[in-house]
Amino acid sequence: MTTCDFLKLARGAALGIAASLFIVVSAQAQNDPLPSWNDTAPKTAIVSFVEKVTKENSPDFVPEPERIAVFDNDGTLWVEHPMYTQLAFALDRVKAEAPSHPEWKDTQPFKAVLEGDMKTLAASGEKGLMEIMMAAHAGMTSDEFQKIVSDWLATARDPKFKKPYTELVYQPMLELLDYLRANGFKTFIVSGGGIEFMRPWTEQVYGVPPEQVVGSSIKTQFEMRDGTPSLFRLPQINFIDDKAGKPVGINEHIGRRPIAAFGNSDGDLEMLQWTTMTGGSVRFGMLIHHTDAEREYAYDRDTEFGRLDKALDAAALNQWTVVDMKADWKQVFPEK
Questions:
Q1: What pLDDT digit, counting tens, does each position of 228-244 carry?
Q2: Residue 73's Cα: distance from chain center in Å?
Q3: Which Pfam families does UniProt cross-reference here (predicted)?
Q4: Strand segments (E) across the chain
Q5: Domain count along the chain
């Protein structure tokens, strides 16, 4: 064999090995249900849990009807800083309705909204925020409110990323939702946000239909208007689906105790406790820890929105998985 022949043979062998490796790597990438997750402990924990509960004839097997997974929304599935998206919506609604309410110019917390005084608005606390929500969300039918929400989401832009809010969902969590559903799970959103604020868009964005959304609500009443049946939204609180309210909402809307729960803040503490601290079958709890100031935000114990303090301490005691967004996610948002 000449030197030239040897070199040709060696080159051919090298190309063949490279092609084989490319095929193997490509196949692995295609088979990876969570490609936006780094190969760190949280991804391993997710896959291990799913494999345990879906393997028939194993002691940890869970029948499909009982495979219920619940997800918080704000800060778990999409951004919640610099403020909750629904609050941004409510502030815009107050500004739009202000000409019909001249008294708001001298009445807090509306005065703070109209003047852009976020410090005073924050100081008004939960009571002030609820007053704003009532003013922005009541006094119309459910159908009218749904259209207003859809129109706002189509035009509103996040102040930092300059994108629609529905594009600022977390790609790793979209993959997780798909992965669970592909393995026989039914996925629910259980959020402190308004149930009728979320229902118009969750199916398109998350693949979660309206009937699988649990959230806070205001009271509605049935009315006949010009011969047409309508549900009219009243300026009264019906249910707050946050903190201890989340297990109540799960019980009332879903009727089954979840086997997996995903959150990011102290508002999700009781939901994770309700899901995981029950004995019986294998249970899974996960918290998203916002640690990536460059790609998103970094916050936990000292923030007005999405405080992660008590729940972070509880995670260590209860062996919940904590996702370090900076270390565990290859990408944060979907690529458009």
A1: 999 999 999 999 999 99
A2: 3
A3: HAD (PF12710)
A4: 68-71, 186-194, 213-225, 228-239, 260-263, 284-289, 321-324
A5: 1
